[in-house]
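new request in #modeling-help
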Amino acid sequence: MNRTGGNLYHNSTAQWLAYIALFGLLAIIPVVGAEPFQLRTFAGYAVFAMLAVSVSMVWGFGGILSLGQGIPYGLAAYCMGATMQMQFQTPDEPIPSFMLTNELEELPGVWKPFWHTHIGLILALGVPTLIMTVFGILMFQARLAGAFVAIMTLAMLNAFYSMAQDLQPFTAGFNGISPPNAFKAFGVEVDPYSPMMYWLALGVLAVVTFASKYMLQSKFGTIVQASRDDAERVRFLGYSVAYYQVVVFVFGGLIASLAGIVWVMIQQYVSPTALETPFSIYMVVWAAVGGRHSLFGAIVAAIVLNYLQTELADISETWQKAWLLILGGIFVAVVLLLPRGLAGAFEYLIGWIPFGGRSAKPAARPEAG
Amino acid sequence: MSVHDFWTPFSAGPFVNSLLIGLTLGAIWLLAALGLTIIYGTMGVINMAHGEFIMVGAYFTFMMQSMAGIPWLLCLPLAFIGVAILGWIVERLLIRYLYHRPLDTLLATWGVSLILVQGVRLIFGGEPQYVEVQPAALRESASIAFVHIPWLRIFILGATLALAAGTWAILYKTVYGVRVRAVMQNKEMAASFGINAQNVYGMTFAYGAGLAGVAGAMFGGLKTVFPDMGLGYIVEAFLVVVTGGGHLFGSIYSSAILGELNSVFSYFTNTTFARFVLFVLIVVFLRFFPQGLFPEAKARR
């Protein structure tokens, strides 16, 4: 695709402008007017977009096909659920009702830190990060790659899913934890139906995206992408591939954890469904359809696909049932015909627009889209 | 929840019973993993739709029973043929374009599995269906002293061993098997000796899918039949394949070991906690032995 001048797609100014335009557009939705219920749904899309960004970082740029992004997401969601539940409890009534039905007479030790909101938030980010670090070191030091990583992350995800179901006195099992009140911090209550919640979710998405983008355009990001393309050669150059893989794996996990926290703030609910296998694979589907080498594509695909799903479900029950059929078809077609997703197709099309002058360095960072 | 509710103390009779249950559980996992072993071991394709092939096999059996009244034992080979044809179609239409991108086969087959699950749900609805196992004797339990095992599980154990033996015979005693193993070791070299590698891949995928079909026909009798049932087998099946090293004998041993371990852990604690411990153990094991329990010395792709 190297015609004269270069591709606008690779121009870093144009890329930043595109991101700013996207987030600007998303940010004015509450101003333009949307029902509170719609706003809450849209805030949920921001969470899905974060998950797509997380998969895009780990898989698209890091070359690690993780089917276990639900692990950090789910663990963070459970920590956040516990934090919000404990905000509701008082010293007179310290035990959540689902524990009473499970015949617990006192608050279990693992739940005690969640009395303090700030400690709860630290745990919600810290616990998944720690687990992903250990898991990442375990896998990447052994130089595992490809299908192996996919199957191991899948197994781990299923292990955590079983635990969430089984430890009923601590997690409320199948029913899940549903904190009665909205999240409060620094004296502010975050109403899930308010524009504040929406902007908060969007803000986290923006921070996460720009941090990822910044990381990819740094030297670190270049080495990460080089390890994806040819790990052996990067090793010959003297870099520790495992180190870079662990860092990008944990970074992706951190994004997924943030997504989990925001999700529980929006839904006031967490259950083992957060750790289900299909959900983690849907994240990969969003990233793949948008273009695994494009954060922008991942965000747009996550929002559009979920929007379509909701809208179709509103039309009729038949459409709701047909959705997974359509999604499966889209996914197969994309994998088969557009391995680089919609962003790849866009890159190809926009390449035909003559663009000279201050062309970026397509050879240096061809895929940091 | 006190420790005593959680931890079952050892006692000989029930423990031996759970060992036997573990053996039959291993057979169930092996049956689910057999087709996957052939497909992954030969072609390097990670078939996420394998669980859905099992599900289609179960529905196919349900349909043959309820509409045509075909006896269950006859349904087994028919389910094999039916799902093998489905597998062959999937390979011809989709998989064969993806051999140079093995990881993408995982994604594409997941797409296929979505379509299969939802297609079946649209046709049959989401409510569970039942496959009736015949003869009726199979529905009872064998009870000798302290051992209680359903006859169906024993039947599955035997059938699985027979299928494994049959697969072994095909792979090691027939000309077709020689071709498969040649393509497995070096596709280009085999092709230059006049073996039609495309054809071998197509037939192998169909065979693996057919095995999933038989598995589905039996699992349908063991539990209920519902559109999402494949999900319950796919993870265990993959772990059996990977732990075994991706070949037939490895899968046989690893399924027996994993089934027993799961059963023993379940005996002392409970089934879900056993699953957790087992999966974590496997992940740690694979970190140190990525080649599995029985690495093959041969050149592999």
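bot summary: Residues 37 and 252 of chain A are 30 Å apart (CA to CA).
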